């Protein structure tokens, strides 16, 4: 399916080449899909900072506020990262990108994220997380040189497992949501491309990532907004008032894990998984190993915002959420040198500071634009 007519031509190619140009001899040339997204923006910026060539790809869909995606784009633009506007399902566009620049790594982060939204728009998960992943792997398979692929799976693949902490070898055949099922399908599909075509593939199971420039559909983000507006927040509880908790992981820790995975992907050794010839197939948990209840999350926000929340404790609806997540990160520690260091309190402090700054700036910008249009 083609959704991006706005690419091609010499000026466009020049921007693509310049963005992907490697600045250090040891640098890599990385295509970051989902670069206007939360994790994508941070990872693209970090790779660029250390001298890699970085090219973004994003379709700027309206799942959440596209203005926020454009603001992230503006930030990357200033850092020298060009985001091509297009859909990962656009095979001709992907072919073109691989033709124009020799991409050494694909950091594949474009996806339909969010667990609960699958109840209302199941098709978007199949489009981006299943068909889109196949399109990216097809393009990588056909490219010369063949890039190593690092991509975002999810802690949600552990589904209804009650054994914690979750280890990579644990069963992942009982997803609780369509989102989780598409990420699980993605892991199986990735394995096929490693097996048949020898693609180097690394899947990263992120655990509830939060931080500045985050996603407005995630609880920590809309709880902040609702607490500030005096609106009630619903705190989910399990059966018999059991705690609902998450292994919240701060964005900077995730970025370090992603960058390490890109560096490790080029290596032909590693006990992370099955190997096809020289190409590894690996899966790692990237979590924080210290689950915090949703109720404690709200208490920290109250403290940081200096506002009392209007709390409603409600039985967790059957919406695809799971009760508890907790990562075992030993494999990522050993093979990627991954060591998360940020507590939920200090990470949320940085998020709250960003949130207040971002929304006060964009609200005053909006107000002055309204003033201008009234006076004109
Ligand atoms: N944030 C988390 O807590 C978390 C946890 C586990 C896994 N993940 C995964 O990490 C990745 C990044 O998540 P995020 O939180 O940054 O989400 P995000 O929604 O902020 O970023 C995803 C980006 O991909 C783009 N996109 C979606 N479908 C596309 C398509 N078909 N073609 C081109 N672009 C498309 C979106 O416009 C968006 O900018 C996703 O794969 C997500 O499933 C995130
Ligand atoms: O780790 C992951 O794999 C997943 O992490 C998050 O999913 P989730 O952990 O459900 O994050 P939130 O949607 O922010 O929810 C956090 C917690 O708040 C709870 N919650 C949510 C909404 C609400 O109104 N009340 C409430 O208590 C949820 O049940 C959950 O326990 C991301 O949204 C997914 O894209 C990602 O794949």
TrEMBL record:
<keyword id="KW-0812">Transmembrane</keyword>
<protein>
    <recommendedName>
        <fullName>UDP-glucuronate 4-epimerase</fullName>
        <ecNumber>5.1.3.6</ecNumber>
    </recommendedName>
</protein>
<dbReference type="InterPro" id="IPR001509">
    <property type="entry name" value="Epimerase_deHydtase"/>
</dbReference>
<feature type="domain" description="NAD-dependent epimerase/dehydratase">
    <location>
        <begin position="30"/>
        <end position="266"/>
    </location>
</feature>
<keyword id="KW-0520">NAD</keyword>
<keyword id="KW-0472">Membrane</keyword>
<keyword id="KW-0413">Isomerase</keyword>
<dbReference type="InterPro" id="IPR036291">
    <property type="entry name" value="NAD(P)-bd_dom_sf"/>
</dbReference>
<dbReference type="GO" id="GO:0050378">
    <property type="term" value="F:UDP-glucuronate 4-epimerase activity"/>
</dbReference>
<dbReference type="GO" id="GO:0032580">
    <property type="term" value="C:Golgi cisterna membrane"/>
</dbReference>
<keyword id="KW-1133">Transmembrane helix</keyword>
<comment type="similarity">
    <text>Belongs to the NAD(P)-dependent epimerase/dehydratase family.</text>
</comment>
<dbReference type="Pfam" id="PF01370">
    <property type="entry name" value="Epimerase"/>
</dbReference>
